[in-house]
Amino acid sequence: MKKKSILSQSLVPKYREEFEKYYFDGLVNELFYNAMYPDVSGADLAADVHYKTVGFQEERLPNPFFHMDFVRAQLPPADRSRPPILHYLGSDDPSGLNPCPYLSPKGLRSDNYETEHPTLLHRLLARPPGVEAFPFLDVDHYKQQLNGFFEGDVSIQDIVEHYLLYGLDKAISPNPLFEYSKEFTKKDYVEKFRSFKSLFTTYAENSDLIVNPIFDVKHYQNSYSDINMHPVMDYLYSDIYSNKSPHPLFDEAFYKETYGHELGTLRPFTHFLSAGGGLSNRPNRYFDPETYKRRYEDTHRPGEHPIQHYMRMGHLEWFEPSDLFGQRFYLSTYPEIGASERPALAHYITEGRKAGYAPLPPKPFFDATQSLDIAALADIAVKECPPSTSDTPTVSIIIPVYGQLGYTLRCLISIFRASDTTDYEVIVADDRSPDESGTVIKDLFAQTSRVNVLLNKKNLGFLRSCNNAAMHTRGKYILFLNNDTAVLDGWLDELVDTLTRDETIGLTGSKLVYPNGLLQEAGGVIYADGSCANYGKLDSPSLPKYNHARDVDYISGAAMLLSKKLWEQVGGFSDYLAPAYYEDTDIAMKVRGAGKRVVYQPKSVVVHYEGISSGTDLTSGVKKHQVINSKTFYETWKKELLRHPVPGDRSHKTADHRIKGHIMVLDAETPQPDKDSGSITAFFQMKILTELGYRVTFVPENLFAQGKYAANLERLGVEVIAYPHERNLREYILKNGAAFDCFILSRASAGAKYFNEIRDAFPGKPIVFDTVDLHFLRMQREYELTKDTALLDPIWDMRELELGTIRKADATILVSEFEIEYLKNEIGPFPSVLLPLIYEEYENPPPFKERSDIAFIGGFRHPPNLDAVEFLTQEIWPRFREHDTGAKLHIIGSHMPAEMQELACEDIIPVGFVEDLESYLANIRFTVAPLRYGAGVKGKVGNSLRMGVPVVATPVASEGMGLEHGKHLIVADKPDAFAEGMNNLYNKESEWTGLSLTGRSFVMSKFGYPAAKARLADLVRYLEN
């Protein structure tokens, strides 16, 4: 009765006869049909009978693999009125129609089926498909959850049908990328099946699905706009060559290339999650999950995968994904990424790599010895070892050794290959190495005194082995160098130069970098609780803040230098810290206690393979003493540590806690002391300010570092801000200005332009205006000489700018009393500092008879110098030539115009730029300064006089310095008088000698370094108060 009732309630199928022609056994899956349609199972009606009678027209599903609505959507509009299965089974070319949204046709075998089984459905039901037919199902994952239900060979079709009929109803996850929610388990089978099917037909979130948290749905949606199903299914069903990535850190192409042999039929991301729980394999070249987990396990949440942790914390600079990606480097190099709080590596993988961003700084060196065996290393070391050293080498390099013979040999090779000129001996202190390193090295270098080996009779430990080695040194200086290092050119010369240049420095050390190019340490910080930190660790070593000499709390013992005298004075490494650790921090405290400074020197660079000999485990071996000695160190120095920074503070101020203040100096360009006198003064001003205890940051308006000139400033302790680290001067000032305590703005044409912006942005911070010379006065004098009316408007504009800036400045630096009095007459009283030329003493100038010829010196970007050469060569030199002295005129100066070469003749030599001006002038009898206009004091005059080289000058050239004609120099205005003065000075030794002595004495008393230092000290005291 029920059968008749159900059938009678339905229309007799219009297409029944047609359908019976296409019907085939196996089309209807009875279990599925009854589960989907309880009205059929409840009527005790056979599923295939019901389907053949009315079910196909009611568009019921005959099996899990044929979906009427899905097929209809693939048909042309004209064919959609018929039951889809009739069109599908009766079509002349149905093979292109997919009967099921979760069937991937590429997984169906097609061999000889086109005629026997013309449709995909025929093929699917007639013969087991490949696993690729159903990418949503991870067979191994599914089997594991059934606890051995499937045994032996089971077809994919059977497993898929089991899942669709049983696993889905039990809410068993078919893939590690997702599982089902609790709400899903409460639904009946029909609701579950429809929810499952919607994953393949609807692009929407599905509350029934709990996606594996490592699959980043939002990232996937944002990355791929052509999705028409759930993101997880879109990934699983996408072409494997599309390289779609379900996570910002997952590089599909890399994964296939690296682990393709392991994938089998799995998608790369699914395999990644399955392989060792996602810890064994890298998701990309730059992320090492296993190492990352070990490094930062204490900050992981329970069950959190490393890439989840990184996506949560990766916008912070401390979390390094691996040694192949410098997190801190990347964020400091591309600050806009850090500002967005986006994980650095995620940006690099998805955008930065394509844009050409760098994941690491350049490697510090190419180590050609890395792959060599011990025999090859030994051969190279012996061949490249320099000849024996003297009995009293300048430096004794102590290399403490415990095993790791290969590293020790590579360290020695790097020392031998370095271009340094400092004489040294090497002492290898072997502390009973298990690989007999010391014995091997002793035999290798038995024929030279360059390398000496100390074989400890018993194991002394690192500290006592170093102390013992120090007793055997012959050098004036002792340098401790770890054996797990490689030194770069200049490393030794720079350290020695640091100590010899400044007697207040007692201990200095190198910039340490990792082999991958990242910074290991730019000096160390000691906190108030005795804990320590490597300043700049894992950042870019090229950043300006790490590239200037600085007073630091301590220098790493991996590469540090001090005099043997001071070493003995402070008692070497403190024995109470044996066997190792904290000896470098402790000796730094002792050096300061002896009244000396501890200074980091970044121009000395050493590559450090940290932890080679002692490992990194703090709980075992010698490394455990790092924890023990931390407490011992604190108890020893806790009184002094009260003045140290708060523990954990990694800000830049922490590294600078020893400075008195921070001063910005802004000028047109980086000083080039060998090219113009203004640069000499600027260079010495900054040198003095650093010696007074201030940190100086120099910012050239053009943001060009100028190579060696910036490096010379950095050696002294001046930070130089330049391209490419900064690309916009105004942005830099406004972003960083709050960190400065004072601004010195040089020149009206450069620094003064930023005065108002700085005053408005940072009110209350003192601003000093350094005129260099009064530009408007120089321009005014040029007009008086040339009568060029085109100069009048620029003169007025410059006058307004300079006088306006002087009125507003907290102090103005001027170079002469003349300028101070001139300005007082113009604007009334104003705070000023007289800071003229600055010179260091020149000793033992050659006498009159060892000199010949005459020189003019001046930079030719300065218009008064061009005019002076014209005046000299056209009007003065012809008159001087008449005296037939045989002298030649040397025209010296940077930026010489090409047309000046036309002046060349038998007695005029256009020399151009001279790098070593002191050596050149040592052979010149006197210089001339025939300036007809200008302002300020003239460096060409002062520099000649301080070297004992007399000067013949015009009144303009000699003004403002207090020089007297006939006492300190010869002053002449007219060409005849000027030529006469030159002739007398060239021929009269007594007159020359007198002017040489008095001129030199006067300049050094008035413009010497000590006088300038006192004036600058007065200035900063005034500003502080």
Description:
The chain is an alpha/beta fold and about 1000 residues long. The protein has 45 helices and 27 strands. Strand 16, helix 33 and strand 17 form a beta-alpha-beta unit. The N and C termini lie far apart (about 110 Å). Its EC number is 2.4.-.-. It comes from Roseibium alexandrii. GO terms for molecular function: glycosyltransferase activity.
How far do the termini sit from each other? 110 Å
- And the CATH topology of the largest domain? Spore Coat Polysaccharide Biosynthesis Protein SpsA, Chain A
Roughly how much helix do the residues carry, as a percent range? 40-55%
Helix vs. strand class: alpha/beta
Tally of separate domains: 6
CATH architecture classification of the largest domain: Alpha-Beta Complex
Could you name the CATH class of the largest domain? Alpha Beta
Query: Helix count, per DSSP?
Result: 45
Oligomer: single chain
Q: Largest beta sheet, briefly?
A: 10 strands, mixed
**Rg computed from alpha carbons, rounded to a whole number of angstroms:** 42 Å
